[in-house]
Design goal:
The structure holds 2 protein chains of 2 kinds. By secondary structure, chain A is an alpha/beta fold. Chain A has 8 helices and 9 strands. Chain A starts with a strand and ends in a 5-residue tail after the last helix. Chain B folds into 2 domains: 4-76, no CATH class; 105-305, Orthogonal Bundle (MetI-like fold). Chain B is built from 13 helices and no strands. Chain B is mainly α. The radius of gyration of chain B is 25 Å and the shape is elongated. Classes of the chains: A alpha/beta, B mainly alpha. At the A-B interface, strand 5 and helix 3 of A face helix 10 and helix 11 of B.
C-alpha cells in the first residue's frame, strides 16, 4: 500500500502582490519504506509539500492521502514525526525531557516514557546525554536529539525539513550515514527536503526534483544504488550518473534563472 | 564580587559631589544665621544677598562656609547628617527596644512594604491574567491593550486621591487597600507587557511541532508558552516591584496618610525638617534595592534550575 498519494495537488497563497503558486499539479506516490528526497531551489514548494502532508498547510486543489486517509486524520492519529531545520529543543528541558515531550502529550505512562527515551537515545547514539541541557550539546547532537524526539512515538512516517541544512559538511556526512543506518533499523518511510544534490543522491531510494514559479515536479528518479551505502559510494560512476540526472532535472526546470 | 569595586567607585563619586554641593546650597541659610547672631556678612541683609550668586557669597564670606555643613535645618543636608538621622530613626531605636514607635522608620517602612507587596501581588496577577487573555483572544488583544497603554499615561498623582475617595465611599476602612490598588495600578503594566512578549516568544515551528503531536491548547500553554515566558516574567517583575513601591509612596503623599514612608516625606516637607525627608527618601531607596535584589536572587536560582543561564 502506498503511504502518500497526491493527485493534481495545488496550493496557491494569496499575498498582497497577487497569488503565489506554491504547488501546481503535483502528482506523487510514496511507497512504504521508501526514502524520498525533495530537491530544488528556494520557492519550488518542497517544504510546502511536506507541510501539506503534515496538515500544516491546506491545499487549494487536487487530492492527497496519507496512510489512506486525509492529512488531518493522519495527524490526529499521530502518524508521523516532523523534524524542522532548527532543532527547536526546549532550553528548559534536558535532552531526555525534550524527547519525553511528545510522550507526555500523548499520555504514555511514566515507565513507558522512560523506556522509550532510553531506546530512542540509543538509536541516535546519544545514550549518556539524557540529563544534559541542549546548550551543553553541539549543533549536530542537538539535531540528533530532535530526530530522537520525532522517533519516540510509533509514527511510521518521518518528515524531515532540511534537518542538516544549518550544519557544516563534516558533521553532515556523519549524520547522513547515521540516518541511513537508522532508516535500515526502523524501516520507517522518510520524506526528506534538501538543497544538496550529493545529500539527496546519497540518502534516497527516490529523488523528486522540483522547480519554482509555479512549484512543480520536473523529474522523479528511482535510484539504482544498492540499499547498503558506504560514504565511498559517492565516488562511483553510478552515483555520479544519478547526480548528473538530478542536475539536468534542475536545469530543465530553469531553476537557476 | 568583581562588581563591588565599580559600584563603590560610583557611590564614592556621588557622595563626593553631594558633599561639595552642600556648601553652595546652604550658604544663604548659614549667612542669615551668622548675621542674626551678630557677625559681619557681605553684603548685609538677606534681601540684598538674593541678587548675589552663591559663588560670590562663598568667596566674600569664606569663614561662614563651614557652618553650612552643620545646620539643623539645611537646604541640603550632608551625607553624614542623613546617615546619622537614618541611624537615629532605625538602628538606635531598635537598640532602645522601640522599633515599632511612630517615630521609627522601620515602622513606617513596614507600613509601606505591606501595601507594596499587596499591590505587587495584585498587579502581577492582573498583568499575567491580562497577558494570557491578550495572547489567546483576538478581541482582548484589540480591546485590552490600548486601554492598558492609556492607563499609564494618566498621572498617578491625579488618580490617587480619587481612588481613595472611591474606596472610602465603598466603606473600606483604613488606607492599606486603596494604597495597594494604586500600587497595583502602576505595577501591572510592565508585567502585562513582558508576559505578552514572553507568551508570544515561541517560534512558529515550535507551535507547529506541538500541532503535529495533536496537543491541546492547555498543553501547549503549560508545556511551551508558560515556561518560555519565565525569563521575560522575571525581568518585568523587577520593574514591577519598583513601580509598586513608587505607587505606594505616591498613594501616601496627597492623601493625608500619617504613616508610611510617603507620609514621612510629606510631613517632613510641611514641618520644614529636610533631614526627615532625606532619611525617608533613603529608606525608600534601600527598601527598593532590597526588593529588587531579592527578586534577582529568585530569578537566578529559578533559571538555573530550569537549565537556562541567567
Amino acid at each position: 500500500m502506498s503511504v502518500v498519494t497526491a493527485n493534481g495537488l495545488d496550493l496557491t497563497f494569496q499575498t498582497n502582490d497577487g497569488p503565489v503558486h506554491a504547488l501546481k499539479g503535483v502528482d506523487l506516490t510514496i511507497e512504504k519504506g521508501e526514502f524520498v528526497s525533495f530537491i530544488g531551489p528556494s520557492g519550488c514548494g518542497k517544504t510546502t509539500f511536506l507541510r501539506v502532508m503534515a496538515d500544516l498547510e491546506q491545499p487549494t486543489g487536487g487530492s492527497i492521502t496519507v496512510n489512506g486517509v486525509s492529512p488531518q486524520e493522519a495527524r490526529l492519529a499521530r502518524a508521523y514525526g516532523y523534524v524542522f531545520q532548527a532543532a527547536g529543543l526546549y532550553p528548559w528541558r534536558t535532552i531526555g525531557g525534550n524527547i519525553r515531550l511528545p510522550l507526555e502529550i500523548m499520555g504514555y505512562d511514566k515507565a513507558e516514557q522512560a523506556e522509550r527515551v532510553a531506546k530512542t537515545l540509543d538509536l541516535v547514539d546519544l545514550s549518556g546525554f539524557e540529563k544534559k541541557f541542549p546548550w551543553q550539546l553541539s549543533g549536530g547532537m542537538q539535531q540528533r536529539a530532535s530526530i530522537a524526539r520525532a522517533l519516540a512515538f510509533d509514527a511510521d512516517i518521518l518528515l524531515m525539513d532540511e534537518p542538516f541544512g544549518a550544519l557544516d559538511e563534516i558533521v553532515r556526512d556523519h549524520l547522513n550515514e547515521q540516518l541511513l543506518q537508522l532508516w535500515a533499523r526502523t524501516e520507517k518511510t522518510i520524506a526528506f527536503v534538501t538543497h544538496s544534490i550529493p545529500e539527496a543522491v546519497y540518502l534516497s531510494t527516490k529523488i523528486v526534483v522540483m522547480s519554482p514559479r509555479p512549484g512543480r515536479i520536473t523529474d522523479v528518479i528511482e535510484s539504482p544504488l544498492p540499499k547498503e551505502r558506504p560514504l565511498e559510494i559517492r565516488d562511483t560512476p553510478e552515483f555520479l550518473a544519478v547526480a548528473h540526472r538530478v542536475r539536468e532535472g534542475l536545469r530543465a526546470g530553469h531553476s537557476y534563472d | 564580587m568583581r562588581s563591588v569595586l565599580p559600584v563603590i567607585t560610583v557611590l564614592g563619586a556621588l557622595i563626593a559631589i553631594w558633599f561639595l554641593a552642600v556648601g553652595p546650597m546652604n550658604i544663604r541659610v548659614s549667612l542669615d544665621m551668622a548675621e542674626r547672631s551678630g557677625a559681619t556678612v557681605l553684603p548685609e541683609g538677606s534681601v540684598e544677598r538674593r541678587s548675589v550668586s552663591v559663588w560670590k557669597l562663598m568667596a566674600q564670606n569664606s569663614a561662614h562656609v563651614s557652618a553650612g555643613y552643620a545646620l539643623d535645618r539645611p537646604r541640603l543636608p550632608t551625607p553624614v547628617q542623613v546617615g546619622q538621622e537614618l541611624w537615629k530613626t532605625t538602628g538606635a531605636m531598635v537598640m532602645r527596644g522601640r522599633a515599632w514607635s511612630k517615630r521609627s522608620l522601620i515602622y513606617h517602612g513596614w507600613i509601606t512594604l505591606q501595601s507594596t507587596l499587596w499591590g505587587f501581588f495584585l498587579g502581577t496577577a492582573i498583568g499575567i491574567a491580562g497577558a494570557v487573555a491578550i495572547v489567546y483572544s483576538r478581541v482582548a488583544n484589540m480591546s485590552l491593550m490600548p486601554w492598558a497603554i492609556i492607563s499609564q499615561t494618566i498621572p498617578i498623582v491625579a488618580l490617587a486621591p480619587m481612588i481613595i475617595v472611591v474606596s472610602g465611599q465603598l466603606g473600606v476602612d483604613g488606607r492599606g487597600f486603596p494604597k495597594a490598588i494604586i500600587s497595583a495600578y502602576l505595577c501591572f503594566f510592565p508585567v502585562l507587557v513582558g508576559m505578552v512578549k514572553g507568551l508570544r516568544s515561541p517560534q512558529a515551528s515550535q507551535l507547529d511541532l506541538l500541532k503535529t503531536y495533536h496537543a491541546t491548547s492547555l498543553q501547549s500553554f503549560l508545556k511551551l508558552r508558560l515556561p518560555a515566558s519565565v525569563p521575560y516574567l522575571f525581568t518585568s517583575l523587577k520593574v514591577g516591584i519598583a513601580a509598586a513601591l513608587v505607587g505606594t509612596i505616591v498613594g501616601e503623599l496627597p492623601t493625608g496618610a500619617i504613616s508610611g514612608l510617603g507620609a514621612r516625606i510629606l510631613i517632613g516637607d510641611q514641618f520644614g525638617t529636610p533631614l526627615a525627608i532625606w532619611s525617608a527618601l533613603f529608606a525608600a531607596a534601600i527598601l527598593a534595592g532590597v526588593l529588587v535584589t531579592l527578586l534577582d536572587l529568585v530569578q537566578k536560582t529559578t533559571l538555573k534550575r530550569m537549565g537556562m543561564q541567567a
